[in-house]
Automatic annotation (TrEMBL):
UniProt record similarity statement: Belongs to the EMC2 family.
A single cellular component GO annotation: EMC complex
Quaternary structure and interacting proteins, as annotated: Component of the ER membrane protein complex (EMC).
Transmembrane segments: 100-123
Function: Part of the endoplasmic reticulum membrane protein complex (EMC) that enables the energy-independent insertion into endoplasmic reticulum membranes of newly synthesized membrane proteins.
Main localization (coarse): endoplasmic reticulum
Topology term for the membrane: Peripheral membrane protein
Protein name (Swiss-Prot/TrEMBL): ER membrane protein complex subunit 2
PANTHER family: TETRATRICOPEPTIDE REPEAT PROTEIN
Length: 124
């Protein structure tokens, strides 16, 4: 359960980041800490960090956590190419990981569903 003060802080940081005021990493950490679902924001702000090599390298081992979070957010937002790219980075770094493999399985199912839906739409 998110407290009123946590919600206020989350909304403040979200507004700040959305308006170019910085604090994307702090916002993403708070989203993770509070276990709230803000997939569109995690995707947008997470990618902004991952696509900036200086910001990405400053994360240390948290870089891999961010790749995982962005992959899941991308799946939620139907940005399957982004999800696939993130999972591929994780697979390369952790080739034997069952955790990474469990992220891949839902991605494959989403691809199949999209393919089937596309085929059905083409029939109409």
């Amino acid at each position: 359960m998110v407290t009123k003060s946590e919600e206020t802080e989350l909304n403040r940081l979200e507004s700040q980041v959305d308006n170019g005021g910085g604090g994307a990493w702090e916002y993403l950490c708070l989203v993770r800490k509070l276990k709230v679902r803000r997939s569109d924001k995690v995707l947008k702000h997470g990618l902004s960090i991952l696509n900036d090599s200086k910001k990405r390298s400053s994360l240390g081992s948290e870089e891999w956590t961010l790749y995982e979070e962005v992959a899941i957010a991308a799946m939620d937002c139907q940005s399957l190419e982004v999800a696939k790219d993130c999972v591929n980075v994780l697979r390369k770094k952790f080739p034997e990981s069952k955790r990474v493999a469990s992220t891949i399985l839902p991605l494959k199912f989403q691809w199949i569903i999209i393919l089937v839906l596309s085929m059905l739409m083409a029939l109409k």
